[in-house]
Amino acid sequence: MPVADSAAGVSRAAEAAGVSALAGAADTADAALVADGVTRKYGARAVVKNVSLRLNAGDCLALFGPNGAGKTTLLRMLGGLLKPYKGRMTLLGQELPGEASTRRLLGVISHRSMLYDALTVRENVMFAAECQGLRHAAAATDAVLKQLLVHDRAHTPVRALSRGLQQRVSIARALVHGPRLVLLDEPYTGLDETGARALTDALRALKSNGATVVLITHNLSEGLALATETAIMRDGAFVHEMARPAQGYVVTEYATMYRELVAGVE
Amino acid sequence: MNDLAFREPSFIADSIRIARKDLLIEFRSRSGFLSAVVFALLSLAIFRFSWDPTAVSSIDLAPGILWVIFTFAGLLGLNRSFNVEQVDRAMDALLASPVSREAVFAGKALGNFVFVMAVQLLALPTLALFFGLPVGPEWWGVLAVALLAGAGFVAVGTLFAAVASNTRLAEMLLPMLALPFFVPVLIPAAQATSSLLAGRPIAEVLPELKILGAFDIVFMAACALAFPFTLEE
Amino acid sequence: MTTASALDARSTSVRRLPPVDWLLMLAVVAVAGVVARATLYTPADAMLGAVQRLFYVHVPSAILGMYVACSVMAIAGGLYLWIKDDRLDRVAESAAEVGFVFLTVVLVTGSIWGKASWGTYWAWEPRLTSALFLWFLVLSYLVLRDAIENREARARLSAVLGVLALLLVPFIHMTVYLFRGLHPEPIVLKPEKPAMSPEMLSTFGFAMLAFTVLFFAMIRLRYRWATARDARLELEQA
Question: Which residues pair with A134 in a beta bridge?
Fold first, then answer.
């Protein structure tokens, strides 16, 4: 059963469609990623209010919401960059934020590249691979560069690449160690067609390999194409959650519902 | 995905890798190191021109000048410590990885140490040259003092670079924060250098060396422990 | 206390502070009493004359500003890093500002005294030099706080500085006493017991007491102001 903190605006349309909210995991033992009552405060104000979720291996949660809703803060907590004021999070049974063995299960991607622009593509990804502790860092680096179609620019300094290519290198950096949980914060920003397609392909591959994905995006169509669950966040809480219907999401309906739910915020 | 084998994170390996990465970036762009070197050599020249040799002997004057220049050239390098991590938020990737916070600090400090010593290795001979100082075995002692002072300098400097990177006006705040902490490094170092250049035996500068050593141990540990608190968590 | 003050004391700190702070009044009276006693009752030092009476201000200010204020800053900061209670940060902030005032007094009175005893307004004498460095340290703490807008970051980062500053103090002392270029320590600055008459000692004791009360009264007042300010900011942001 979901533990969503619903505001008054929980959509009746969603309920009418007979959709259950995030009930993907039958119980905690099966779930890959579990968050329970996670809260983060700034002063007296809660920026993330009592958020809970359960995701299986292979699931992809698309997280939508207006700016300032707390999505990035939630993601940073899942990534171990911030500590929650209250609540717990576990990944594959291990506590988050965790020790080294837990942290190497994570991959983080955002609209900032997290690269060193004076270093080459290969140097950047090798550095990440070695920091993750990969024994065969060079082989893994070359493999992921090929997968993301950037191996031909391996010896180019990142500074000399277009934004789309930089983002692809950033994805390579994040995935080189085969993470089980991939956290993405608006990764489609600034990506061209090729880049967006490469990203979507990489995410599909991750899902089919059993990784769990949490994706923040403003791009409803991309998000809904990949999602097995969606959540809309507003003022720090989940105001709507929806598992993927058998026939897939209908973007226009979802967009209408989304606009209704976040009306008055943006 | 292929079968990936992992090794446990190693503090030493992680620190060295981070230091190498920083030095590689510095070497590629070169502007930071060159600025510091040019600043040091130019300052030495200017001090030389403004010096009246009949009023003060070179051995009395040179050590103070050396350590003042060391400080400001070092600050130029320290300022850049965390810039490279913040520009594209590379620090986030590092913090999310298995690398420990202490290793991040040690790596940054190690990179800064190499930077500072490299500038010093150019400044010392230039000092001897410009000020006509006698060159003999006492310079080994001076080098030892430089190494000890450099260690304490970068420990404190790296930490305050991390603190300052959270503020606006980071470049102006860093000297203000760090200079009081440099006092127990600079004064013993300058005094010891002065004694050594005057030909005094090493035994006479033991008090200075002891302060430097104690400072290094205390502050390398304290700053490594304090570093995680400079990160928002 | 009037009804208004009682209401103020009970209501949240968003309301204005009580018009009369009893501790501060007590402190002011005590200090006034000490000044009167020092001027009228206690004999002046044979060598230095009236200026020596500054000693009753200088030494308590030094003890409170250099040792007590810095310790409070550092300990409150360290505890804040441990349990993240905002009140500890406000204590540190208050101790720093009050300490800064006291340190300034140390430097000014030391300087005036120096002019009287050595003929110069400044001399690199060990204690004055230490006080000067501490003054710079507390100043940098205040400037750091001023440069950070985010409340959590400000508390956290200044706490780091506060703790490290306390670690630094013994090294400053060691360095200052090592430094060959300093004046030899003049004997007159030391409150050597045999040189002080019983009246001087007792006045000094009263002075120490009065300034301690003043110190804590000022911190308390500053702390309350900080609490009111933070509460108001929170209301504005909510």
Answer: B6
Q: State the average pLDDT over residues C206-223.
A: 89
B112, burial (CB in 10 Å: exposed 0-12, middle 13-18, buried 19+): buried
C236 touches chain A (CB under 8 A): no
Pick from A165, A162, A164, A161: nearest CA to A145: A165
How many residues would you count in chain B? Answer: 233
Residue in the block written with tokens 């600079």: B186
pLDDT for the residue numbered C180: 64
Q: What is the largest CA-CA distance in chain A?
A: 55
Which tokens hold the place of B195?
Answer: 């004694």
Q: Which two tokens stand for residue A41?
A: 């405060």
For residues C41, C45, C51 and C57, what is the CA-based torsion angle, rounded to 10 degrees? Answer: -60
Contact residues for A18 (Cβ-Cβ < 8 A; gap 6+): none
How far is residue A222's CA from residue A206's CA, in Å, rounded to a whole number? 16
The answer to whether the peptide bond before residue C43 is cis (omega within 30 degrees of 0) is no
Length of chain C: 238
CA distance A185 to C121: 61
Distance CA B25, CA B14 (A): 17
The whole-angstrom separation of Cα C60 and Cα B174 is 32
CB contact under 8 A, A44 and C151: no
Rg (CA), chain B: 19
How many angstroms separate the CA atoms of C22 and C7, rounded? Answer: 16
Pinpoint the alpha helices (H) of A59-99: 71-78
Give whole-number Cα distances, C63 to C66, C195, C211, in Å.
Answer: 6, 20, 10
Is the bond leading into C198 cis (omega within 30 degrees of zero)? no
pLDDT > 60? residue B25? yes
Residue A191 is encoded by which pair of tokens? 């990506």
Q: Which amino acid would we find at residue B184?
A: P
Interface contact C166, partner B, CB < 8 A: no
Q: Is B8 on the interface with A (CB under 8 A)?
A: yes
Q: For an interface test with C, which of B158, B166, B204 has the most C Cβ atoms less than 10 Å from its Cβ?
A: B166
Secondary structure letter of residue C17 according to DSSP: P
From the list A125, A121, A119, A106, the residue with the least C-alpha distance to A176 is: A125
C3 CB near a chain A CB, below 8 Å? no
| ipTM for this prediction | 0.91
Q: How many CB atoms lie within 10 A of CB B66?
A: 27
Fill in the DSSP letter of residue C40. I
What band does C17 get if pLDDT is binned at 50, 70 and 90? low
Given a contact cutoff of 8 angstroms between Cβ atoms, the answer to whether B115 and B179 are in contact is no
For residue A5, give how far its alpha carbon lies from the nearest alpha carbon of chain C (Å): 20
Q: Six-digit token pair at A145?
A: 């560069």
**Is the distance from CB of C178 to CB of C136 less than 8 angstroms?**
no
Tell me the residue type at A198.
A
pLDDT of residue C225: 92
Q: Is B30 on the interface with A (CB under 8 A)?
A: no
Across residues B46-71, what is the average pLDDT? 88
At A59 the three-state DSSP class reads coil
Residues of B with CB under 8 A from a CB of C: 156, 159, 163, 166-169, 173, 176-177, 179-181, 183-184, 187-188, 191, 207-208, 211, 214-215, 218-219, 222-223, 226, 229-230, 232
Residue of chain C minimizing CA distance to A41: C152
| pTM of the model as a whole | 0.87
CA A46 to chain CA centroid, Å, is 21
**Amino acid, single-letter form, for residue C4:** A
